[in-house]
Design brief:
One of its GO terms (biological process) is siderophore transmembrane transport. By secondary structure, the protein is mainly β. It contains nine helices and 53 strands.
Length: 1002
């Protein structure tokens, strides 16, 4: 034994100092024991190396070793020692935040024998997992028929997607924290992801759906932790992929006309008009254009590397409209006291009917029907989008102990969304622009053999605009100065339609003119500084602690352009301080909103043969740096409502007499700010909020192939900043009823307490099973509270913490590793999600509709009781493969109505169930010895299923409504039938999409 210890090369003790460090939460750990193969005694000083990296370690007195900060991926591990035959174990998978155990048994040998090479047998069950999580590698993502990383999240157990929101274990949308390379990239304004990451840039995607460690915060439902790829330090590689595709569907008649309620034969609706998805029966490969690529390699071999990726995608969509009308088609004629077709402009394609000044009603309808049957009107894509993304990551081994990295990510999106009312007037819709920029810097330092530190800084900019112009910089016309808000009309001949035209086509009618009259511009700039230190203090304890400081700057303009006789028919915008048609926090010396978030944590991962424990404590501090009003009856100090807030109470009797209501006795703005009607300051700055979050989780290994786990934790999340800062001028429009909402900077953090218990076991050689049960108690959810204004009848909603919910469920998941070219996953989730409201604005809209808010727990909008996800991959040859993804979900709840009146408690009935099958197939060719060409086809919604996502509340179906039984066929301008308006393609899931592509490995 002494001889073995004497031959330990000291150089290998130092190898751990050369570790290729990455952020905490972005690496895994290798550990194990090295023994003499014949004697089963520990080998002291054996060298363990991760092949192709500078990562390594030497075994201790008990033959144990550990290697920290191993980036996720698949490696070969080499075991060497003088006097023993070398051993290489291939195909070792390392996952983020987990320990991969690899033991080595070395045989004594003479010098010169070749090393022994074996294949690692991957455990189906990871025994140090103490809460539910999934680690998806880049190779696994490549095999799936998915477009974005969000599609991968949607396949995980416990996840439900509805209305574009991702719900995890019954939580509301927006309860996920997104992280890239260990640092948060969530936009705190709306809880969305602030940086776009393409699939080809992902090294590993970690999704945590259960309780999670103290290092993760500002999330109540889940964590998405993405580790991006590093460039190769010695070799160049790349990939280029070109894809074209189309939505391909027969569409089919969609709306069932109830017997006895058909239109008259002479006005019978064209069958094309009743088709859900017209113009999709021909495969047009240019409908979806998708070009992506990546390039990786050394800048200075062995020292500096780069990884670059990019994507350009254009999707023309599947929801069609017709340019029957132009926004300016109709004009008001005073002589006739009505709207008529403009003789100079005519209809949408420039067609001017003869005698257009006299044509209206039935005559115009017949003229339009004739032109539609002749296909004279342009078909317009109404849900199109185009996106460009790019990433550049530089990694620099600055010294053996220090690594520097810089990751630059950029994306821009231009799109238009479908609006059913604009289906005959598609040019009246706005354009939307989204620009995301992220800069991530990091310094990783090895302090000792077992301790490392990370210093990180990120700058993320999320810029969203919505306006009529297709110029993304049009918003710059809006001045951000206090003076001159209403003096300069907008240019470019936009916003020059009197909004009164919308009153001409109310009810069940398509807009026959008019256009979106808003201009919206919001920018969030998030600067984050984060430091972490991790120390493996012995073989059983790994201590990790960290600190994070995040400051956000938000600027916003939300304008309704005024165009009417009062503006001399010039499109103008008003001073936001005195006009409810303009909200802003970036004007009059206002530099926007600047909330500050600070957090810190400490946690310990205890690992032994008998038990694994994760225990930690987290502290969160939040300062919105904003104010609240002290008198909610009279919130706007610039336009006060109470007499005592408008005039001085000169006689001190607490009332304002007629004699005191004089112009000379008016209070100034500063007077009101100092004292309101009750002698308090008008505004009060809110105090910062703090939270303490304990986290605890443990796992009991039963055998080397099975374990039990239990976890518990408190999880807090600040309200979206949109709920804190909305209506920044505290305005309540003077209109009877409930007409606006108001932010509240004094809201508390939302809170979830979650319990989880689970069992995992490997069955046979290639199958694993996991059974997990959970319960979530959710409190302090965002809601609205109705406040009365000083003016009788006027009310408004203020955001508060009032809603509550709970969720419980069980998940059964089976996984099969690749054996005989076949692998797959199958999971089933039964869950119950109930609460008093599904949306923060529920009480506000209930008050508007004169509906009593729910006082009991009811099913939430995303309460899907039964969910099944299945993936299957089959490789008939080494050069080909096919992957299938299947989803089934029971129906979501909805509220029954009859003649527009609710007939029972909220969400008392169920929509139809949904199902979907996606497919990916590929075949690879080798050329020039090393280059590879791949031909692939992706088919989404393979069977072209019509999943009914939104239903009519009087039938529970998307396919028919009872409206025709009590509503006239024609109303307003009488240009479309009721049945035409009730054909709602956006009520259904997307039709079949086929993409064909060619990829070349460089």
């Amino acid at each position: 034994m002494k001889l073995i210890f004497r031959h330990r090369p000291n150089v290998f003790i130092c190898l751990v100092l050369l570790v290729q460090t990455v952020f905490a939460g972005t690496t895994g750990k290798l550990a194990g024991r090295v023994t003499d193969k014949d004697k089963n005694e520990p080998l002291i000083g054996a060298n363990v190396m991760v092949v192709g990296t500078t990562l390594g370690a030497a075994t201790d007195l008990d033959g144990n070793y550990y290697i920290l900060q191993v980036p996720p991926g698949t490696y070969s591990i080499r075991f060497t020692m003088i006097g023993y035959q070398s051993l290489v174990i291939n195909d070792v998978r390392v996952k983020v935040d987990l320990t991969t155990t690899i033991n080595g048994a070395l045989a004594e040998s003479v010098v010169g024998l070749e090393e022994v090479v074996v294949q690692a047998e991957r455990a189906m069950i990871q025994t140090d997992v103490t809460y539910s999580q999934a680690n998806i590698s880049s190779e696994e993502v490549d095999l799936l028929p998915v477009e974005e990383f969000q599609d991968v999240i949607a396949l995980q157990a416990g996840v439900v997607v509805t209305g574009g929101d991702i719900h995890v274990r019954g939580g509301r949308g927006g309860e996920i924290s997104y992280m890239v390379d260990g640092i948060t990239v969530t936009d705190p304004y709306n809880a969305g992801v602030a940086i776009e990451i393409e699939n080809n840039a992902i090294q590993e995607l970690q999704f945590i759906s259960g309780t999670f460690n103290a290092e993760y915060g500002q999330a109540m439902s889940g964590i998405v932790n993405i580790v991006t790829k590093d460039g190769d330090y010695n070799h160049f590689s790349g990939n280029l992929s070109l894809n074209g595709g189309s939505y391909f569907s027969k569409g089919g008649p969609s709306f069932k006309i109830l017997p006895g309620y058909e239109t008259e034969p002479e006005n019978e609706v064209n069958a094309t008009d009743m088709n859900l998805f017209p113009r999709l029966d021909i495969f047009i490969p240019s409908t979806v254009q998708d070009l992506s690529g990546s390039l990786s390699g050394p800048v200075i071999p062995g020292r500096i590397s780069f990884f670059a990726s990019g994507r350009i995608k254009r999707d023309n969509g599947y929801l069609k409209g017709q340019r029957i009308f132009d926004p300016h088609s109709f004009i008001w004629v005073d002589e006739n006291n009505n709207y008529e077709i403009d003789d100079s402009l005519g209809l949408g394609n420039g067609y001017v009917p003869s005698l257009s000044s006299r044509i209206a009603g039935e005559s115009l309808r017949k003229a339009i029907d004739s032109l539609r049957r002749a296909d004279e009107f342009d078909w317009i894509s109404m849900d199109w989008s185009e996106q460009k993304t790019g990433q550049l990551k530089l990694s620099w081994r600055f010294t053996p102990r220090i690594k520097l990295s810089f990751n630059r990510m950029y994306s821009e999106t231009h799109s238009q969304y479908y609006d059913h009312s604009y289906r005959w007037n598609p040019d009246g819709r706005p354009h939307e622009f989204q620009t995301n920029t992220g800069n991530l810097f990091r310094m990783d330092i090895s302090l000792s053999q077992s301790t490392f530190a990370n210093i990180m800084f990120s700058n993320a900019v999320n810029h969203f605009r919505r306006h009529l112009s297709d110029d993304p910089d049009y918003y710059k016309q809006i001045q951000n100065e206090f003076d001159g808000w209403a003096s300069d009309p907008l240019s470019d001949n936009l916003y020059e339609v009197d909004p009164k035209i919308f009153d001409f086509a109310t009810g069940n009618n398509f807009y026959v003119g008019g256009q979106y009259m808003g201009i919206y511009n919001r920018k969030s700039i998030v600067n984050t500084l984060k430091t972490e230190i991790t120390s493996q203090i012995n073989s059983k304890h790994q201590i990790k602690s960290g600190f994070e400081y995040r400051k956000t700057n938000i600027t916003m303009n939300d304008i309704t352009v005024q165009y009417n006789a009062y503006t001399n028919f010039d499109p103008v915008y008003s001073n936001p301080l005195v006009s409810p048609t303009h909200d802003a926090f970036s004007s009059g010396g206002d530099d926007g909103r600047n909330p500050v978030e600070i957090s810190g944590y400490i946690q310990d991962k205890i690992e032994s043969d008998e038990i694994i424990v994760n225990i930690g404590l987290r502290y969160d501090f939040f300062d919105p740096q904003w104010k609240i009003v002290n008198d909610t009856e009279d919130p706007n100090y610039l336009i006060p409502l109470k007499p005592i807030n408008r005039w001085f109470d000169t006689d001190g009797d607490g009332e304002i007499s007629d004699e005191e209501m004089t112009s000379n006795n008016l209070k100034g703005d500063n007077d009101r700010l100092e004292f309101n009607a009750y002698g308090d300051p008008w505004f009060e700055m809110v105090n910062p909020k703090t939270q303490i979050s304990p986290r605890f989780a443990l796992a009991f290994p039963i055998t080397d192939k099975g374990y039990l786990h239990f976890s518990y934790g408190h999880f807090f999340q600040n309200p979206n900043f949109s709920y804190i800062y909305t209506n920044p001028e505290f305005e309540v429009p003077a209109a009877s009823g409930v007409n606006t909402t108001m932010g509240n900077a004094d809201m508390e953090a939302q809170r979830t307490t979650q319990y989880e218990i689970g069992f995992s076991q490997q069955i046979g050689q290639d199958v694993g099973i996991e059974i997990t049960g959970y319960f979530k108690d959710i409190r302090n959810l965002n809601a609205t509270k109705i406040h009365k204004s000083f003016i009788a009848g006027d009310r408004y909603g203020m955001y508060v913490n009032k809603d509550h919910a709970n969720s419980q469920g069980i998940t059964i998941a089976l996984s099969k590793r690749s054996l005989q070219n076949f692998s797959g996953n199958l999971d089933y989730t039964y869950s119950v999600s109930e609460g008093n409201a599904s949306d923060p604005t529920a009480a506000f809209y209930d008050e508007q509709s004169n509906v009593e808010p729910e006082k009991m727990l009811v099913p939430l909008d995303w309460d899907q009781r039964h969910t099944i996800n299945a993936t299957m991959t089959y490789h008939p040859t080494a050069m080909s493969g096919i992957s299938l993804v299947f989803n089934y979900g029971s129906g979501f709840p909805y509220t029954t109505e009859f003649v527009g009146v609710r007939t029972a408690f909220e969400n008392n009935a169920l929509k139809p169930a949904s199902s979907n099958l996606d497919l990916k197939s590929y075949y690879n060719f080798i050329f020039m010895r090393k280059r590879q060409i791949s031909v692939h086809i992706n088919i989404y919604n393979f069977f072209d299923v019509r999943n009914e996502e939104t239903v009519y509340n009087d039938t529970g179906r998307s396919t028919y409504s009872l409206l025709p039984t009590y509503t006239a066929q024609y109303s307003g301008p009488a240009l479309n039938t009721l049945e035409e308006y009730l054909v709602r393609p956006h009520y259904y899931s997307a039709p079949r999409q086929i993409k064909i592509g060619l990829s070349v490995s460089l």
